[in-house]
Amino acid sequence: MSDMTELEATLEGSESPVACAVGADEHPIGSWLRQERMPHIWCPGCGIGTTVNCFTRAVDDLGIPREDIAVVSGIGCTGRVAGYLKLDTFHTTHGRAIPFATGLKLAHPRTKVVVYSGDGDLFAIGGNHFIHAARRNVDLTILCVNNFNYGMTGGQMAPTTPESSIVSTAPFGSVEKPFNLPYLAQSCGAVYVARWTVYHVRQLANSIKRAMSKPGLTFVEMLAPCPTLFGRRNRLGDGLAMVEQYRERSVVKNGADTREVDLNMEGPIVCGNFVDIERPSYIQAQAAQMKRVLGDRYVMPDAWREVMG
Amino acid sequence: MKTNPRGVLVGTHFLDGDHAAAEGALAAGADFSAGYPITPSTEIVERLAQRFPRTGGTFIQMEDELAASIAIQGAVWGGAKAVTVTSGPGFSLMMEHLGYGIMTETPFVLIDVQRGGPSTGLPTLPAQSDMMQARWGSHGDYEIIALAPSSPQECFDLTIRAFNLSEKYRTPVLVMMDECVGHMLERVDIPPADQIEIEPRRMTKIAPGGEYWPYSLEESDNGSLVPPMTKVGLGHFPHVTGLTHDERGYPAMNAAAQTKLVERLIAKIRDHKDDIITLEEVGVDSADIIVVSYGITARVCHPAIDRARREGHKIGFLRLITVWPFAGKRIAELASRVKGFVVPEMNMGQMVREVERAVAGKAPVVSVTNAGGEVHDPEVIYRAIIEVAK
Fold first, then answer.
1. Structural domain range at position B149
2. Residues 38-77 of A with CB under 8 A from B
3. Which one of B121, B163, B306, B327 is at 20 to 30 Å from A299 when CA atoms are compared?
4. Rounded to an integer, what distance in angstroms lies between the CA atom of residue A177 and that of residue B89?
């Protein structure tokens, strides 16, 4: 617990973690889940469930009405998150969660739209959509579970696979330089960028709360163990051992220069809230421009009027 | 239900088919479009980008056609009526999300202004060579609805009809234009809103917060096989997935769920062909030879038909306004009492295969092909007619 306290202390203004008042026989986040769909498909030791725990505690704490949150996922292990949440949920095609979410947000801006997907889905097949959504600053919170490989299909190379690590399609070690996701997100225009591991549950929940409270495109990278595939091939041990490695290797640097937060197999895992800036979101900018140019002739979409006044 | 007058540009206009299709979408009540520029369809999204800010709609230019064709579906689940527009290469990219729309039963309209292919082909010149892609382009088994306008007026009218069919059957509907129809300027009459019939989205009557299953037929009229919709924000908490799913929308990975779902998706259209299929027939019942065509090529047939008639031949004209589902029943009826069919189309022989299938050897079927780039010379169609008449 002493480590936890130390990490927490580095979080400026961090509140106590979310507590849900429930009966003894009830799961604390049970009301946020489609419990009839349990058991889930994730392997023992997988980190995705921990991120769901953090996400649901964050939304619970934010007090947003349940009907005002939508979750959009792509394809893959993390793509299954949407289907387990008792919210308006969409399991889209591979890589396309962001453009689906963009249309959903523009048509119904009252809804907080969260894109919840994996590193392969969001940054390989979906990479083009990510950079453009960040550039436009669409009001989306993008939660990316990064487990360094494609879990659903058996542990293939992802755009996040660390150099020299073993995956099924680079059985002798990857030589490709992986994306540094926080740097990518910041350089494309995201207004909030953070990274945590599933060891940092409280910080992660707080980051999700901050991300969901800001207009514009906000991005949280969530490092999670995939012991069945990435862990096994790279001899990293079981899920618990991998979380232990996160604890040992993590360094919290809020406000760190995102150019310096690359991940590899050996060095420090830099975590923290890296970027938190203000710039008009797509809807704000679009409405302002139309009003300026068209004046009274501009007919704001009814659904926009609801949130813009 | 009559349409909302907000988007209806009442009056007599001189418009090309692209602009007319944009006005058709507005008149149908479309309030969302995501697009990606591609010749010869771009004028449609340009007009929507111009018009939407003054009609309460939203246009967004996306990074590619993959994005455009899924952004509109997000918008539909946000409560919008949505359209996207493309041509050949973009149509290929949109096949992924045509399938998603069919599987998730998301109503929207997709307009394909056809140009010559394969690949980049002839960006500025016409073809009708995406007809089979329209039918079979996305993977898996499904039925599709596709309409083929042959004039700017029909680009307006059929875009409205496409929206109506998409709502009625809760499915994507294609408008298969071609570069000629898209770029030809003609008179387009836009009636007042109180003369435009609109099929409203059938929303669930389950109260907000109640237990709603997005694919349950409990609220459906007897035999319609179309479950009612919802949208986000109502507390219905739908789960929508492209995976095979049960009535709750939950993934169900087994043969029984697959059979039940796919058979219903197909039957909801196949069982209502009579409602969906529209044909234009001229002189068909007394004809010896029937010319079957659609889109711009149907108009190019007229000089050839007129000439053959002047020479004493009994020529019928059958225009496919609805191309998919195919009017096989009608063609089969006619097959037993005519000398033959002539099928001109601006491709190397696509819809003719359907005609042949329906005719089933009862009469000769002559395909009048054209690789695209320019419309048929009517002389070629005339010669094909005379060949059958011999």
1. 5-195
2. 66-68, 70, 72
3. B163
4. 32
* Among the partner residues A111, A290, A300, nearest to B232 by beta-carbon distance: A111
Residues B310/B385, Cβ–Cβ less than 8 Å: no
> Which residues have C-beta within 8 Å of that of residue A253, sequence separation ≥ 6?
A261, A270, A271, A272
Name the strand (E) or helix (H) holding B385.
helix B378-389
Question: Cβ contact (<8 Å) for B233 and A300?
Answer: no
CB within 8 Å of A38: residues ≥ 6 apart: A84
Contact B55, A299 (CB under 8 A): yes
B385 within 8 A of B308, measured Cβ to Cβ: yes
Q: Judge whether B207 lies within some domain.
A: no
Residue found by looking up tokens 């953070």 in the block: A194
Residues 6+ positions from B170 with CB-CB distance below 8 Å: B105, B106, B107, B202, B226, B227, B229, B268
What are the backbone dihedrals phi and psi of residue B172, each rounded to the nearest 5 degrees, phi first? -65, 145
| Closest C-alpha among A155, A144, A122 to residue A231 | A155
A302–B contact, CB cutoff 8 A: yes
Q: Which chain B residues have a beta carbon less than 8 Å from that of A111? A: 78, 232-233
| CATH number for B368 | 3.40.50.920
Region of residue B373 (phi > 0: left; psi between -120 and 50: alpha; otherwise: beta): left
Q: List the B279-282 sheet strands across, edge first.
A: B279-282, B315-320, B289-293, B340-344, B365-368
Q: Determine whether the interchain pair A99/B239 forms a contact, defined as Cβ–Cβ distance below 8 Å.
A: no
Pair (B174, B42) in one structural domain: yes
Residues B301 and B178 in one domain: no
Minimum CA–CA partner of A37 in chain B: B250
Q: Is the ipTM of this complex over 0.90?
A: yes
CATH number for the domain including B36? Answer: 3.40.50.970
| Strand duo B322-324 + B315-320: pairing | unpaired
Taking the alpha carbons of B287, B293, B299, B302 in that order, is the dihedral positive or negative?
negative
pLDDT in tens, chain B (390 residues): 999 999 999 999 999 999 999 999 999 999 999 999 999 999 999 999 999 999 999 999 999 999 999 999 999 999 999 999 999 999 999 999 999 999 999 999 999 999 999 999 999 999 999 999 999 999 999 999 999 999 999 999 999 999 999 999 999 999 999 999 999 999 999 999 999 999 999 999 999 989 999 999 999 877 789 999 999 999 999 999 999 999 999 999 999 999 999 999 999 999 999 999 999 999 999 999 999 999 999 999 999 999 999 999 999 999 999 999 999 999 999 999 999 999 999 999 999 999 999 999 999 999 999 999 999 999 999 999 999 998
**What's the CATH architecture for A2-278?**
3-Layer(aba) Sandwich (3.40)
The separation between CA A35 and the C-alpha centre of its own chain, rounded to angstroms, equals 22
Last residue of a domain, one of B171, B195, B219: B195
Q: Which of B329, B375, B16, B29 is nearest to B184 (CA)?
A: B16
C-alpha to C-alpha distance for B279 and B30, rounded to whole angstroms: 26
Is residue B273 in some structural domain? no
Looking at B195, B227, B252, the residue that finishes a domain is: B195
- Going from the C-alpha of B217 to that of each of B230, B247, B255, the distances in angstroms are 14, 8, 20
- Whether residue B270 is contained in a domain is answered as no
> Is A106 within 8 Å of A249 (Cβ atoms)?
no
Domain count, chain B: 2
- Tell whether B201 is covered by a domain: no
